[in-house]
Automatic annotation (TrEMBL):
It comes from the Bacteria. Its EC number is 6.3.2.13. It catalyses: UDP-N-acetyl-alpha-D-muramoyl-L-alanyl-D-glutamate + meso-2,6-diaminopimelate + ATP = UDP-N-acetyl-alpha-D-muramoyl-L-alanyl-gamma-D-glutamyl-meso-2,6-diaminopimelate + ADP + phosphate + H(+). It is found in: Cytoplasm. ATP binds at residues 108-114. Pathway: Cell wall biogenesis; peptidoglycan biosynthesis. Keywords: ATP-binding, Cell cycle, Cell division, Cell shape, Cell wall biogenesis/degradation, Cytoplasm, Ligase, Magnesium, Nucleotide-binding, Peptidoglycan synthesis. Its cofactor is Mg(2+). This is UDP-N-acetylmuramoyl-L-alanyl-D-glutamate--2,6-diaminopimelate ligase. Catalyzes the addition of meso-diaminopimelic acid to the nucleotide precursor UDP-N-acetylmuramoyl-L-alanyl-D-glutamate (UMAG) in the biosynthesis of bacterial cell-wall peptidoglycan. Meso-2,6-diaminopimelate binds at residues 383, 407-410, 457, 461. Residues 106-311 form the Mur ligase central domain. It comes from Fictibacillus barbaricus. The gene is murE. Belongs to the MurCDEF family. MurE subfamily.
Length: 488
């Protein structure tokens, strides 16, 4: 594509040399920049991409998009915000692929991965060809691809949509993280439906306070229907039990459809019963009232199911089909996932890594546990420090015994993270075992019949990040081995 054509999509830019080279690829990483590419300089948290402009030019880049003046021998396009410019250009370069998809974006602190999987299941069961992008993986039909972020950068994302179109995907569902919204990774994405799950504390290392965090989430709803869009109707699917929805209602130009349990709304669940094998409730839509029996556990799962039902109904899928699919879902990898090895106690691996999700999961376990409850938790390093004491306090309050251990310490001292956690409770019912494997083994060795062990925080993760090392670690495998060892 000619550079000139790409630039027609940018509203504000300056160019130092009048030139119109053919652009054969777009790159944001100098290590990938080669002949014919447009290299985009991104100022990151670790590196400044502008420092690599010269290398990119030497490697054959035909033009460079930058926020700064540069001294290079190829044309430089100067913009105010290169991340957002990159998103707009990537969308154009790949032929506006999101406009050709029925695209659903899900944001919120908790429940994005779960809700995307539920929605994808309903769509694929009803004969749609689907794509999915989120924390666990990117999926195009049955093919799974690794992802580095919950919401990838705009180059990866637009390329992924392009691949989906080539593979004849008609419906794509994706998680939209607050980081992605602030960094403009999803600019140019033509969402048809934007879904909000909930807003509770997380990521305050990045967003600084809850107002900024809410503002980040709100961008999905303010952007809905605002870029070069296909002319379909846009919907904002909002959780009416979460106070943040009021702001999202005010700022979106899309039609608002609400779901919830406690407050009046369009799609509502009442009479919720939480059992040891699943959850049932009465579903009320403007047109019908139905009894639903889920294999999923907890009130929080009802919210995810309501968000999914609302989204699928708005997408034109019959209620009977939606219910049939959702009633069959047994779970999502690493979310309230039982580890069953013939033992007489219950072991659950869950991805709760925020105060709210930990509380929800422990309250759900309390609804059915007959024996005592042990919660094994840690908190990630290089992440929101203020959630550490809160999570520790919740674990000590709601479980009979808590074991504080390491999550992904990353570049922080694991013992300091544990101290930050311990500051959150005066209780005497916890102990600290820094090594996660030892913590799991300790709990399993002492479990009696009917007890429940919750291993929280890492869910589907198959690694543990200590320092810069990414080591093999899977809570489910470690728990399984520990159970087998006590049964010998
Ligand atoms: C804080 C944050 O969001 N960081 C993201 C950011 O990285 P960064 O700002 O550190 O970038 P950088 O490494 O400094 O590089 C800057 C630029 O220099 C370039 N570079 C660098 C080196 C070189 O030799 N040559 C070169 O050109 C890089 O390609 C890049 O363009 O841009 C990268 C590319 O898009 C992201 O992968 C990275 O996510 C990191 C891995 C991360 O941990 N992010 C987390 C906090 C995150 O985004 N999480 C959210 C949500 C989590 C949730 O679901 O709750 C997510 O969407 O994943
Ligand atoms: N609707 C919900 N409300 C509160 N907690 C939830 C909800 N759904 C799931 N959870 C809890 O949050 C954990 C993470 O769920 P999930 O992975 O679906 O969220 P996410 O928003 O994708 O998280 P992330 O931001 O890390 O990608 C689950 O393991 C469960 O403990
Ligand atoms: N998307 C979340 C995942 C946290 C998972 C937890 N295991 C951790 O490493 O803190 C984050 O990057 O903050
Ligand atoms: Mg997720």
């Amino acid at each position: 594509m000619e550079l000139k054509e790409l630039l027609t999509y940018l509203v504000n830019y300056e160019m130092d040399i009048a030139a119109n080279p053919e652009i054969t690829s777009i790159e944001m990483d100098s290590r990938k920049a080669g002949k014919g590419c447009l290299f985009i300089c991104i100022e990151g948290l670790v590196f400044d991409g502008h420092d690599f402009a010269e290398t990119a030019a030497k490697n054959g880049a035909t033009a460079i998009l930058s926020e700064k003046d540069l001294n290079v021998n190829v044309p430089v396009i100067k913009v105010r915000d290169s991340k957002k410019a990159m998103a707009i250009i990537a969308d154009a370069f790949y032929g506006h692929p999101s406009q050709k998809l029925h695209l659903i974006g899900i944001t919120g602190t908790n429940g994005k991965t779960t809700t995307s999987h539920l929605i994808e299941k309903v769509f694929s069961d009803s004969g749609k060809t689907t794509g999915m992008i989120g924390t666990i993986e990117m999926k195009i039909k049955d093919q799974s691809y690794k992802v580095a972020n919950t919401t990838p950068d705009s180059l990866f994302l637009q390329n992924a949509f392009h691949k989906m179109i080539e593979e004849k995907v008609d419906t794509a569902v994706m998680e939209v993280s607050s980081h992605a919204l602030v960094q403009g990774r999803v600019w140019g994405c033509d969402y048809d439906i934007a879904v909000f799950t909930n807003l509770t504390q997380d990521h305050l290392d990045y967003h600084k306070n809850m107002e900024e965090y809410q503002f980040a989430k709100s961008l999905l709803f303010s952007q809905l229907g605002n870029t070069y869009q296909k002319s379909t109707k846009k919907f904002a699917v909002l959780n009416n039990d979460d106070p943040a929805s009021e702001m999202f209602k005010r700022i979106t130009s899309a039609e608002v459809i609400t779901y919830g349990i406690d407050n009046d709304c369009d799609i509502r669940a009442t009479n919720i019963t939480i059992g040891s094998q699943g959850t049932s409730f009465t579903l009320q839509t403007p047109k019908s009232k139905r009894e639903i029996n889920l294999k999923l556990m907890g009130k929080f799962s009802v919210y995810n199911v309501l968000a999914s039902i609302t989204t699928c109904l708005l997408s034109g899928i019959e209620l009977d089909q939606i219910i049939k699919s959702l009633e069959n879902v047994t779970g999502v990898s690493g979310r309230f996932e039982p580890v069953i090895e013939g033992q007489e106690f219950t072991v659950i691996v869950d991805y709760a890594h925020t105060p709210d999700s930990l509380e929800n999961v422990l309250r759900t376990i309390k609804e059915f546990a007959k024996g005592s409850i042990t919660a094994i938790i840690g908190c990630g390093g290089d992440r929101d420090k203020t959630k550490r004491p809160l999570m520790a306090g919740i674990a000590a309050d709601l479980a009979d015994r808590a074991i504080f251990t390491s999550d992904n310490p990353r570049t922080e001292d694991p013992l300091q993270i544990l101290k930050d956690m311990e500051a959150g409770t005066d209780a005497k019912n916890y102990l600290t075992i820094p090594d996660r494997k030892e913590a799991i083994e300790y709990a399993v060795e002492r479990a009696k019949a009917d007890d429940v062990i919750l291993i929280a925080g890492k869910g589907h993760e198959t690694y543990q990040i200590i320092g810069k090392d990414v080591l093999d670690f899977d809570d489910r495998i470690v728990a399984r081995e520990a159970i087998k060892a006590v049964k010998k």
